[in-house]
Amino acid sequence: MLRDPDELAHLRRELRPASLGTHWPLYASDPRRLDLLTADEAGFQAALERIAASLTGVPLDYVLVHFPERGEPWPSVTTVHRRLAHLATLAARLDLRVVLEPKEALGGSPDGLCAFARTVDALPDGVELCVDVSDWQTAGDNMGQRPPLAMGAAQIHLHARHVQPGGPFYRHAAPWVDLPPEAGWTVRNVRPAELDGMVAGVRRVRVCIEVVHHYLPLLAPSIGAVRRDLSALGWREDTSVTG
After folding, report:
1. CA 187, CA 159: separation in Å to the nearest integer?
2. What is the pTM of this model?
3. Does the first or last residue of the chain, that is N or C, have fewer Cβ atoms within 10 Å of its Cβ?
4. What count of Cα atoms within 13 Å lies in the side-chain half-sphere of residue 226?
5. What is the H or E stretch that residue 158 is in?
6. 98: helix, coil or strand?
């Protein structure tokens, strides 16, 4: 979601990342959806080959895919588990983690994160769960409650979101800091304590602070707020790895 290489350099200076991954829909710059759950078998295998061809030899720690895409109908349990096994094989082939981000349908039927929570009670080696706080909030909008996850998330995409009332559109904003008011937009934040429900039982969690160029000036104070508030909840930052 960056616009030029200077912004990437800015983020590296601010965050000093110890690991590096890619969000496949952004990396691919491809208008086609990667419907990993509803594609036929040939289409699914072709999607995996596209990922493998693009990332072979690229020094990454993980690749994130939508599972399901936003609004993608949920298939049979057999299909879900068979495709999870293929994703685990892809992770081993590329020597990286495959991270699944279930996308909840905006304003529609609960067929994303809610369906994932109902159906998936374990993941194979090499495959991990990411919860995006916007999808967590949207699941609450759809269901009136947050879906209980059978496993904790190894990664959280943490951000506030500026929301257009009456519309499905939002943009990622720096979390837990005062944002400048903008006509036609309202701000929603996830509460720090809500994150505990997303990661229960996971000893190490990657917290990814998602922002767009519009909010880069607020990145540093936002990181400070995240560190302060998570520390107050008993979370401890792993400072043993630098990079």
Report:
1. 10
2. 0.86
3. C
4. 23
5. strand 155-158
6. strand
